[in-house]
Specification:
By secondary structure, the protein is an all-alpha fold. It is built from 13 helices and no strands. It has one domain. It is 77% helix and 0% strand. This is Drug/metabolite transporter (DMT)-like permease.
């Protein structure tokens, strides 16, 4: 179930690039798109919590420290990652931005090992290598890229920020329900982007119904559903496994772009997708073998037990 949730999250996030292209085509600006994405998602999740109070910590008020941490994940982590990503996108090709960004699974795995949260097993190391190679083929199969050192630094900054975001989220995801955690993260990001928009002279919202349609798709599918599935999957799998499984995202983006936008899907990209799926199989076979040996312990159990203490 944890792997399935991570893959669902990756698919929803992967659709965002296509939704974004369609939104830009009808006049939606990047600043407005980001602000509306997080604001609408926060409002929708808040409504869900209002209608379903049982989704909040069994009615108990969460500790203020956890609430502030969750808000900070959005205000600092998510908002910063998005700003760095779109700044890099202005300087270098999208395929190169995505390629540099998807160094984060390896960064998460290595950081989790250095922090003592997870063991860097041969199977996990192999999964990182296979997923990274597959992602490389998927992204570079799109064609040539233009290089800009500042753009690459910005993209790598987005990868580092997302690495920190996942590791910090892993310390909170076991203590707050996914819906509440997602709502707080979205609210934090929306607040930061609103302040940024006001400081920059305002946000342009004069686009038509088609723009609102694609913005709504991004807010609901590529934010609310994607975020809930990611946190729920992270809770069951641990940070490095969730990061490795999330490399399915660029595969989804490439396929959807080929189907909806008519972009050519080269054979090398298909091969890359197969490698990414192979990495999913690697991380899934490992726990099952342990279960058969009678250990009954998943790779994330060490993290979970540490947080339970």
């Amino acid at each position: 179930m944890g792997a399935a949730l991570c893959l669902l999250s990756a698919a929803c996030f992967g659709a965002m690039a296509v939704f974004g292209k369609l939104a830009y085509a009808v006049g939606v600006e990047p600043g407005a798109l980001l602000l509306l994405r997080f604001a609408l998602a926060a409002a929708l999740l808040g409504f869900v919590l209002l209608v379903r109070p049982d989704l909040r910590s069994g009615g108990a008020r969460p500790p203020l420290r956890l609430v502030l941490t969750a808000l900070g994940l959005g205000a600092v982590g998510y908002a910063t990652q998005a700003a760095l990503y779109f700044s890099a996108l202005e300087r270098i090709d999208a395929s190169l931005v995505a390629l540099v960004l998807y160094t984060y699974p390896a960064l998460v795995t290595l950081a989790a090992a250095l922090l003592g949260r997870e063991r860097l097993t041969p199977a996990r190391s192999a999964a990182v290598l296979v997923a990274s190679c597959g992602t490389l083929l998927v992204l570079l199969g799109a064609g040539g890229v233009r290089f800009d050192s500042i753009g690459v630094v910005l993209a790598f900054g987005a990868a580092v920020t997302y690495t920190a975001y996942i590791l910090v989220a892993d310390t909170v995801v076991h203590r707050l329900p996914p819906v509440l955690l997602s709502a707080l993260v979205m609210a934090g990001a929306a607040l930061t982007l609103a302040v940024r928009g006001i400081a920059g002279g305002g946000v342009e919202l004069g686009f038509g119904p088609a723009g609102w349609l694609w913005v709504g798709c991004i807010a609901v599918v590529s934010t609310v559903v994607a975020m809930l599935a990611f946190f729920a999957g992270l809770r069951r799998t641990g940070p490095s496994t969730a990061a490795i499984l999330s490399t399915f995202e660029p595969v989804v983006t490439t396929v959807l772009a080929a189907v909806t936008l008519g972009e050519f899907l080269a054979p090398v990209q298909v091969l890359g997708g197969v490698l990414v799926l192979a990495s999913v199989a690697v991380v899934q076979l490992r726990p099952r073998r342990r279960a058969r040996r009678g250990t009954g312990r998943r790779p994330a159990d060490g993290i979970r037990l540490a947080f339970d203490r």
